[in-house]
Amino acid sequence: MSDDTPDVIAELDDLAVHFPTPAGTVRAVDGVTLAVHRGETLGLVGESGSGKSTAGLALLRLVDPSAGRVRVAGADVTRWSRRRLRATRRHVAMVFQDPQASLDPRRTVGDSIAEPLVVHRLATSRTARRERVAELLDLVGLRADTAGRHPHELSGGQRQRVGVARALAGEPDLIVLDEPIASLDLSVQAQIMNLLRRLQRDLGLTYLFIAHDLAAVEHMSDRIAVMYLGRIVETGPPERIYRRPAHPYTAALLSAVPVADPRVERQRRRIVLTGDIPSPVDPPSGCRFRTRCPQARPACAETDPALAEVGPGHEAACLFPLDGERDGSPGEEGGATDRADIAGTA
Amino acid sequence: MSERTERMPSQRQRPRTDSTVLSVDDLTVTIGTRRGPARAVAGVSWQVRQGETFALVGESGSGKSMTLLAATGLAPRAATVTGRVRLLDHELTALPDDRRRRLRGRHVGFVFQDPMTSLNPVLPVGRQVTEAAEEHLGLTRRAARDRAVELLELVGIPSAARRVDAYPHQFSGGMRQRVAIAMALACEPDLLIADEPTTALDVTTQAQIIELVADLQARLGTAVVWVTHDLGVVAGIADTVAVMYGGRIVEQGPVDGVFDTPTHQYTRALLAARPDPSRRGEDLVAIPGAPPSPLDLPPGCAFWPRCPVRADPRCEHELPPLTPVGDGHTVRTFYRGEAG
Predict the structure, then answer these.
(1) Is residue A19 in a domain?
(2) Could B235 and A336 be called an inter-chain contact, meaning their C-beta atoms sit closer than 8 Å?
(3) Least CB–CB distance from A188: residue in B231, B280, B290
(4) How confident is the model at residue B188, as a pLDDT?
(5) Structural domain tally of chain B?
(6) Count of domains observed in chain A
(7) How many other CB atoms are there within 10 angstroms of residue B135's CB atom?
(8) Which residue, among A143, A162, A188, A300, would best test binding to B if mutated, counting the most B CBs under 10 Å from its CB?
(9) Cross-chain Cβ contact B290/A257 below 8 Å
(10) Which residue of B has its CA nearest to A194?
């Protein structure tokens, strides 16, 4: 990305995805604008109920938008029919959290990987398909004879490699990775992250990496977007987001991540959020985070803040963005106390 | 709504005596399967004292959960359990089932990954929280209800007096886990066993539950055994830790010693596999392969096939003994070069 104007490969424009339920309309995604640039990994983080997975599904039009637009490779696909979408699906693939659930247990690994080849007519003869499947297995570090096996014969890490091979079959430009390491053992997570990065380098892939594991997202991503209750509250490069989070939610989220160092853990101050994430059926007025925000002021109930620039390539949707370093600087803890005083008077 | 920026209560400040609450000695669990015996746990020994938190850490299939089930007499019927388990002054392993069940009910509280494991979906939470207390402490229905409100307040359920009649589905995941903790604490247990209690929760909710358990422990002096796969959680909660792999403890000791000078290659590999912000852009130090199956364990060190060092060939064929390397810190390996 040497050019100043990024090449946008896919984007959501003021997108809303609402689901009618007996309890009311769930506003899973409620006004999200997000552009994925060619060649990058965009990390999308948030907790359950934030809408991050729904946003990823919307990008593939696997859920129907209620409002806003979805553009893929320059084309507005918001209202495209299923059949017409099939052609874009070749260029945008998806890897799911649980490879056990996304692979058909009765089919061989080879048949599962070959399915996109058949659908997209990429390999018409049986021999061509077999060769391509062997190639794809090799790409993800599996032996060619894995093609004849069934998912239950594989380990979790091997199954996720198959999930990646299947996503690669259509020769996509963009892969939406929805929690691709969340159900794997720690010792295997690093293998899959290394594999994904190697494939990105070798094949020039673009990733939308959706995860709740903040350490993994930091490691994988060129840019990060943080979601809370159907909205993006902060975006920026990892070094800004992790060192100088501007949105109080991002700061709280980062402070909650345990660090594998007993001394750090003993010293640290956590910003423990009180209460639960509010219902997406009836989100709070103004800023959606204000009901749990340690820094909330009366104005936060009145105004729904838009994303605004707080630094180079760094935007936050907060009326009173934080300004300061998070870790390692002695000023940080004092700063948090000052803000607590402000919250106390609010 | 006010901010609570609090320090984790320091391990040093917790009430601490030398009274051992639970001790497990040479515990072995073998499970008969259609494909032969699976050695889920082999020769595991540890103890937890009053006011102390002992963490059992390992990946899936390491035997960490089975160790706890077997130690508390909850192993499945197909399992053969050997070894000795002492709970307070009672030799659990020598007792008949019903005696053991009563002791467990009176002295041990359980919290599981999915709170719905312990909650009944069709009963109001208040009734469930004190169900065991009614039996074990002989509370009347009326007293039990008051106690339920008290317990729900203790674990931080807002408007507990009103919520006591609500059903589990009316609570969020985090609040349900609080209810499960209230239920586990109803009999004022000497020991709280928490099996991946925060794994299914978001990090901000996990932080709340960790604070809650640490706070309750400091106030009540409960011994806690916490099973997790998350080394960050271990660093935050534990006084002592045992790292399990292939059914055995490979490294054990005070949390500072184990994290400062990890000595078993598996412990070192686990700590090294985490992404490190100072090394962004580099490949992670992955551990090749996958954890072994309990049906097919190597004769020596179970980590040998994946070990990046393999410096001492004895580790392949002989089971290394647990050897002391520091203050209360033991490691199951022949090779200790370059450690610490």
Answers:
(1) yes
(2) no
(3) B290
(4) 87
(5) 1
(6) 2
(7) 14
(8) A188
(9) no
(10) B283
- Considering only CA atoms, which of A307, A341, A318, A311 is closest in space to residue A243? A311
Q: Scan residues 117-176 of B and list those with Cβ closer than 8 Å to A.
A: 158, 172-175
Of A266, A272, A296, nearest to B10 by CB-CB distance is A266
A141 and A180 share a domain?
yes
A220-269 pLDDT, tens digit per residue, is 999 999 999 999 999 999 999 999 999 999 999 999 999 899 998 988 88
A126 in the same domain as A266: no
> Chain A residues with CB inside 8 Å of B1's CB?
274-275, 291-294, 296, 343
Helical spans, DSSP H, in chain B: 64-71, 97-107, 125-129, 131-137, 141-154, 160-163, 173-185, 203-220, 231-237, 255-260, 265-273, 314-317
Interchain contact, B1 vs A214, CB within 8 Å:
no
Structural domain that includes position B305: 263-332
Degrees to nearest 5, angle at CA A40 with A37 and A43: 100
Cα–Cα distance, B238 to A262 (Å, whole number): 8
Domain check: are A132 and A179 in the same one? yes
In a domain, B48, yes or no: no
Q: What is the pLDDT of residue B337?
A: 63
Residue A41: give the domain boundaries.
8-221
Q: Is position A237 within any domain?
A: no
Residue B115 in any domain: the answer is: no
Identify whether residues A74 and A17 lie together within a single domain. yes
ipTM higher than the 0.95 cut: no
A308 with A169, same domain: the answer is no
pLDDT, position A67? 97
Q: Which residues contact A302 (CB under 8 A, 6 or more apart)?
A: A285, A286
pTM: 0.87
Q: Is residue A145 part of a domain?
A: yes
Please indicate, yes or no, if residue A103 is contained in any of the structural domains: yes
Cβ distance B286 to A194 less than 8 Å, yes or no, reads yes
| Secondary structure class of A208 (helix, strand, coil) | strand
Residue ranges of chain A whose pLDDT lies below 50: 1-2, 328-346
When the pLDDT of each residue in chain A is averaged and rounded to a whole number, the result is: 89
Q: What is the pLDDT of residues A65-109, one digit of tens each?
A: 999 999 998 899 999 988 888 876 678 999 998 877 788 999 999
* Inter-chain residue contact A193 with B275, CB threshold 8 Å: yes
CATH number at residue A217: 3.40.50.300
Rg (CA), chain A: 21
- For residue B315, being part of any structural domain is answered with yes
Cβ <8 Å between B203 and A253: yes
Whether residue B290 is contained in a domain is answered as yes
Q: Which has the closest alpha carbon to A169: A123, A220, A202, A234?
A: A123
> Which of A188, A218, A273 minimises the CB distance to B277?
A218
Q: Element (H or E) spanning A336, and its range?
A: helix A331-345
What stretches in chain B show pLDDT beneath 50? 1-16, 339-340
Residue type, B296: D
> Which of B:54-93 have CB within 8 Å of A?
59-60
Which candidate in A143, A261, A325 is best for mutational testing of the B interface (most B CBs within 10 A)?
A261
Average pLDDT of the residues of chain B:
88
Distances (CA, A) of B118 to A32, A284, A300, B149, B201: 39, 33, 40, 18, 16
List the structure tokens of A158. Answer: 């091997």
